[in-house]
Design a protein that fits this description.
Number of helices of chain B: 3
Shape of chain A: globular
Oligomer: heterodimer
Order of helices and strands of chain B: HHEEH
Order of helices and strands of chain A: HHHHHHHHHHHHHHHHHH
Shape of chain B: rod-shaped
Strand content of chain A: under 5%
Strand order of the largest sheet of chain B: 1-2
Largest interface: A-B, 52 and 31 residues
Radius of gyration of chain A: 21 Å
Radius of gyration of chain B: 34 Å
Number of helices of chain A: 18
Distance between the termini of chain A: 33 Å
Helix content of chain A: over 70%
Largest sheet of chain B: 2 strands, antiparallel
Number of strands of chain A: 0
Structural class of chain A: mainly alpha
Structural class of chain B: mainly alpha
Helix content of chain B: over 70%
Chain lengths: 356, 211
Amino acid sequence: MFNRSGRAGNYAYAVSRVKAKKALLLKDEDYNKMLLMSVPEISRYISESGYQKEMTDLAGRLEGMDLVEHATYTNMAKVFSSILQASQGELKGMVQAYLEKWDIWNLKVILRGKSYGLDPEGIREDLVPAGSLDSESLEKLLSLDSVEDIIANYDKMEHITIPQDVISTYKSTGNLGEIEDYLDKAHYVRLVKSINPTSRPTRMFQDYVRTEIDIKNLETILKLKAEGIHGEVVMKYIIPGGRQIDTRYATQLANAETIAAASSDLSRLEFYDSIKGLVESDKVSIREVVTEMKKYEIAAANKFSHMYPLSVVPIIDYMIHKEIEVSNIRTISRGVESGLDADTIKGLLVIRWRSQ
Amino acid sequence: MAAHDVTPNRSVLLDLKKRIKLSQGGYKILKMKRDGLIIEFFEVLEKARKMREGVSSDYESAMEKITIARAVEGEIAVKSAAYALKADPQVKLGSKSIMGMMVPKVEAERIHTSMLDKGYGVISTSAYIEEAAAAFEKLLDTLVRAAEVETTMKKLLDEIEKTKRRVNALEFKIIPELKESERFVKFRLEEMDRENTTRLKHLKGKGEVEE
């Protein structure tokens, strides 16, 4: 599906559209203001900052925090869909491959909801059609009853083949984990393949994706290690194609019995300085390590965002920042609603390296 | 039983003596049981106090983690992960005896589920959701243990109350009444003895006069 297109992308048009949208993104000082507001005030504030239509549309059936969360997701889905529609040629291929994660997200939501026994109404509310699957395709998946049928239809829509042994494992255990992990791995493999690294900006984009793979892999290794799982089992969940963590290095990290034992091996990583203090402490908080790695990833994206104005880079940079904006609004609103103190909420936000 | 309701004869007196001895023995044993239960209760109370603190701190930690997970990952992601869960916690119920009283024994058989068996993917499920899940598993484990201690404590309290009522009944009602009955029967028997002696003396005097 994400084969490299022979046609050049319409970079000038797509980038100019994205630049106009980027100017509307919330700035760091907006988040500081929002930290001092209540949820209704935040709702009003974001309504005045580009989320008006979605807030009004959903206000009839949702309220409070749910309204904020669904409205921001809906807005993001619309924005991403418009970028995808405005892109052509190789650019479209890359954007589509990048947004495939939202198709996978939706598929997971449907599969989990169906296996739990939810009705389509309940599942529909939680879908975020920000990928290449439009509402019609998602409706089709929702209308199907069995997990096998949903997967078979998704395979056709996204031109992906989930191996029979993965489906057999699901059938025998009822555990969706294997299917989900296969889809996540396939997404990154397809994304890396969709980028033609012949030009400097696409190489930078590919490097960014491969760094994201490294971060995902390290997170997986740490999560499993915290559960006392190491060795071969860990390697099953490693996504191929990382920039710094190749199979050999991943095996080395996976074989260390504890996080402490792996910490010396981690020093080879570029982002080691960001997580050094955390992985060397007695009690490693994976959540904090993940937050720091996420901040590193965003910083890396910011570094290249201004370098090649007529390339895929500003478009991806915008999509990353849009996702962060949605996540930050949600974090602040939910944090304020739950009574978390401002410092805790600030620690959860990804705004440190924001560039406008 | 009113003291005057008994028939004053020797067999009743013997029976009363036997009953007083039995009641005093029972009183002594029940008093010891009550004291033992109180000692046991204070030990369980201390455990329950610590357990309540544990439940309270685990609950706070779990709620904080789920709040953070909901804030960072969103309600939809947290809800979706919850729908994928396949493993149910398992507890084993048994019983044990404390001074003859049966109390429940609850053992958490399978509270913690490995990340690989949870029902959702390992790669994309965030560390925030995992931390929240682990915190709730810990809370559930503490709650199961707290349920055992709390139930034991409540059963101990009921048993202490029951034993205390029995001890008090024996001490202030049954034994005093039995003693009163014994005193009454003894008095009546002595009275009857004296009447007999007087009657015999009277008959003896009558006989001597007739001779």
